[in-house]
Amino acid sequence: MTPSARLQTAAARGYTRVTASALGPRQSAVVRIGFSFTWLLFLVREWPHRRELYGPDGPWNWDMAARLIDGNRAFTALMWSDSTVWFEIVYALAIVSSSLLLVGWRTRTMSVLFMIGVLSLQNRSIFVGDGGDNLIHLMSMYLVLTRCGQVWSLDARRAARRADREWPPRDTTGIVLWAVTGAALLWAQLFTDARLFLTADGPLPGLGWGTILWGLWLVQAGWWFVRRYAPGEPRTVSDVLANVAHNGALLVIMAEVCLLYASAGWYKIQGSRWQDGTALYYPLHLDYFSPWPWLADTMASSGTLVMVLTYGTVIVQVAFPFTLLNRRAKNVMLVLLMMEHLGIAVMLGLPFFSLAVIAADSVFLPTNVLRWAEARLGRARDRLAARAVWLPGQRARESDEESPAGTLVR
Fold this sequence. Notes:
Blueprint: H1 3-20, H2 25-45, H3 50-53, H4 62-72, H5 84-103, H6 107-124, H7 131-143, H8 154-161, H9 172-191, H10 209-229, H11 233-269, H12 272-275, H13 293-300, H14 303-323, H15 327-347, H16 351-361, H17 367-402, H18 404-409
Helix pairs in contact: 2-5, 2-7, 2-16, 5-6, 6-7, 7-16, 9-10, 11-14, 14-15, 15-16
């Protein structure tokens, strides 16, 4: 085979692979579960302080936020009204959408509502976040483009139950949800200062949030129509477009993680404290980052341990993007990075930051490991279900054998 023929064959295989299927279904599901769980846990933990962080009782009041939004043109539903009731509604919807995205119920719609909740709260008060919040901010937009509910979701279970049907069902729940979200979007467009322009103040130049949200709403309707009434070539084309969007978003997530570690590692190299191996010593002695002072003192008392962890952090972060060329090296580095962020969560008291980064790292998890975990969890679930069914039946049979007459009397 000539070199040009090999190149054409490889290009054809790559084209087929990218368009015929959504790559990394388990990895995208883990990313979905990880980020929705992290955001949900944060919202529930901060429930008593929600009004001080993002609402009317905070030092960054509504007028100050309005002036900031006028300047940076960020999207936030909390600026549509200064009512306390509206704030509570938005916060509650953020919790509900995170919970439903976590379990994978109507993931296409919930991913959009999840994005709206994240952007609304974070853009309302931009000074209360950290690096983990920035990561959630970005990933909430990327998840909208992924088919992250193909496995480990209620959507996948519902699709499996309906797989043997020749004709798709009407899906009344989906129609009602589509109508409600459309009515809410129309209300925001007509009766609030939502800034839902078609070509301005959007995530991309020349593309406004009005175009984005109405476009996603219409795409959902088109997907339902094609699935129900045009199952032939239109459905195939729709699947191809969805697969391309999913695979492109997954590639962007991978590039984002690599950029995160590369920039963090190379910036650390330029610092004198990282160069002399003492950088880790200083955050261990900050009260704000010391939930366990005795543990921090124990670690800081060992100069060798501090030096090893300091240099190890830089080496792992700088080397990670290059290890993607070797699967075994990548897996080792991935384990080290996750252990590093677990250490940050415990030692420095930054659990949400660590959970967000680990959720992003999960996009690189090996498929074999995820399949193994899926099989083990499936067997554990089946054993629990069988035990729950078997024990009551066994007790009933034992009771019948001991006292058959008593059963007749009752």
